[in-house]
Amino acid sequence: MRRALLLALAVLALPVQALELKPFSASYTADWKQVPISGTAERSLEKLDDGRWRLDFEASMLVASFSERSTFRVEGETFLPDSYRLNRSGLGKGKKVEQTFDWAAKQVVGSDRGDPVKLALHRGLLDKSTYQLALQHEVAEGKQSMSYQVVDGDEIETYDFRVLGEEKVGTRVGQVDAIKVERVRDPTQSKRQTILWFAKDWDYLLVRLHQVEKDGKEYQIMLQDGSVNGQPVKGN
């Protein structure tokens, strides 16, 4: 009994395993089904000099542009967002979002389309960009269903996902073995659909995303080229 108790205490005393992130950069083709002109998209993760990480995403085509930037820290297995910025123009109404995650005051403060945002902050709460890295990490761990608390506008929403299986994705760098993941939504509440593909052999880099908006518009990005931890992505 005493030995079992000592073993249990020893396990509890072990340091929390740090989340291992690898910098990456990737370029994609970006297509709206309703627009005959293709665009481009760029996604990158970079470690900053102060130990924080920065995740960037930019997409543009002739009639629209979209950009996101998140900065965050990692403690053990937990993502701690610091800031989130979004700018969108064209194809409907423009949108601008700014969020600051004040961990000392335990508040998220900022603005969404000019309206002020102020929400209670707790560990595990993510922004609309950083949750994608959390998803990427947990897919790599082999999880089949995932759930995240995400700051969405002036509310905190629950984002649920499930793994659909493995699938080969044809990209410009060749065939890539990927894990196919679906955003789970209540079909009686939302007609939006989001499916993502993560490359198994390349630290689960996002290689394809397909989204159907509630008005039926379809959007897709597909990997053109990329690198993970300085190594160029290559298909089979």
Protein topology:
Blueprint: H1 2-13, E1 24-32, E2 39-47, E3 53-61, E4 64-75, E5 78-90, E6 95-102, E7 107-112, E8 115-120, E9 125-126, H2 130-140, E10 145-152, E11 155-171, E12 174-184, E13 193-199, E14 206-212, E15 218-228, E16 231-232
Parallel strand pairs: 9-10
Antiparallel strand pairs: 1-2, 1-15, 2-3, 3-4, 4-5, 5-6, 6-7, 7-8, 10-11, 11-12, 12-13, 13-14, 14-15, 15-16
Jot down its keywords.
Dehydrogenase; 236 residues; 16-stranded mixed sheet; DUF3108; 16 strands; mainly beta; disordered N terminus; signal
Task: Give structural notes.
By secondary structure, the protein is mainly beta. The protein contains two helices and 16 strands. It has helices spanning 2-13, 130-140; strands spanning 24-32, 39-47, 53-61, 64-75, 78-90, 95-102, 107-112, 115-120, 125-126, 145-152, 155-171, 174-184, 193-199, 206-212, 218-228, 231-232. It has a 16-stranded mixed beta sheet that branches. The radius of gyration is 19 Å and the shape is globular. The termini are far apart. Mean pLDDT is 88; it is low at 1-17. Pfam families: DUF3108. This is Dehydrogenase. It comes from Stutzerimonas balearica DSM 6083.
